[in-house]
Design a protein that fits this description.
It is a single chain. By secondary structure, the protein is mainly beta. Helices cover 11% and strands 38% of the residues. It has two helices and nine strands; from the N terminus they run E-E-E-E-H-E-E-E-H-E-E. It has helices at residues 73-85, 167-175, and strands at 14-21, 31-42, 45-51, 60-61, 92-101, 106-115, 128-134, 180-189, 192-203. Strands 1, 2, 3, 4, 5, 6, 7, 8 and 9 form a nine-stranded mixed β-sheet that branches. Strand 5 and strand 6 (106-115) form a beta hairpin. The longest helix has 13 residues, at 73-85. The two termini are 20 Å apart. The relative contact order is 0.25. Bound molecules: the ligand Nc1[nH]c(=O)nc2c1ncn2[C@H]1C[C@H](O)[C@@H](COP(=O)(O)OP(=O)(O)OP(=O)(O)O)O1.
């Protein structure tokens, strides 16, 4: 931790929301790679995609990927949302997630976006299977693999146990319309990613 108490890579205008993990140093990194992630909220529903392949396969996530050369993060977020879910949305910047894995020299800098409306129909692609999750307190508990593209009543609650382990600390904040920044350092054990240390703050 630096003198301010924030992990390296964080802005200074943050108020701590959550921190935890092991008493280890933050993993050093020499490069940063830019990614995006977009979450669509419609009334009391959240759209997630079940990732079918690649890094993070078998986890639910927002829609996103690499920022290509010449693109702004906002342009990349709109492109990735369309490519992975088939929809367009008026995305707004919601936060920044710095993500590291043990043994890699780079940090993923993920600009996270959200939107409260969208156009088009969420459609399954080679990479993602979209599904709606309830944001209301009366949602069905437990995870649900039956998900297809559905907006019927009785949706499952957000499947945090099948998401990246840090998402539970910042996604509720995003849903409330508040901005955040944070960092999560992971280790790889077999084919599983284990979160070793995390810190999240609200942007003041
Ligand atoms: N919600 C999330 N929580 C988290 O802790 N790490 C995330 C995350 N979303 C993405 N990451 C990290 C891990 C993930 O493997 C990496 C790259 O993000 P993505 O999986 O969205 O990118 P892709 O590898 O699919 O890129 P493209 O091939 O350009 O689509 O960023």
């Amino acid at each position: 931790m630096g003198a301010t108490g924030l992990p390296p890579g964080m802005d200074s205008n943050l108020t701590e929301l959550a921190k935890g993990g092991c008493e280890i140093d933050w993993q050093p990194y020499t490069q940063t790679r830019f990614y995006t992630n977009a979450f669509i909220i419609s009334d009391d529903k959240l759209l997630l995609g079940f990732k079918k392949r690649g890094f993070g396969a078998n986890l639910y996530n927002g829609f996103g990927g690499k920022v290509e050369p010449g693109e702004t993060p906002a342009q990349a977020a709109a492109r990735e949302l369309k490519e992975e879910s088939g929809i367009d949305a008026p995305l707004e910047h919601a936060g920044v997630l710095i993500f590291l894995t043990e043994g890699t020299e780079w940090a993923f800098h993920i600009d996270v976006f959200s939107a409260r409306s969208y156009t088009g129909e969420p459609t399954e692609t080679d990479e993602m299977r979209p599904g709606w999750f309830s944001l209301s307190e009366n949602s069905i508990n437990g995870n649900d693999d039956r998900l297809g593209v559905s907006s019927s009543p009785g949706l499952p609650s957000i499947p945090y146990s099948k998401m990246w382990a840090d998402d539970i600390y910042w996604l509720p904040h995003l849903v409330e319309g508040k901005k955040f920044m944070g960092r999560a350092d992971f280790a790889k054990e077999g084919d599983k990613f284990i979160m070793r240390k995390f810190w999240f703050g609200a942007v003041c």
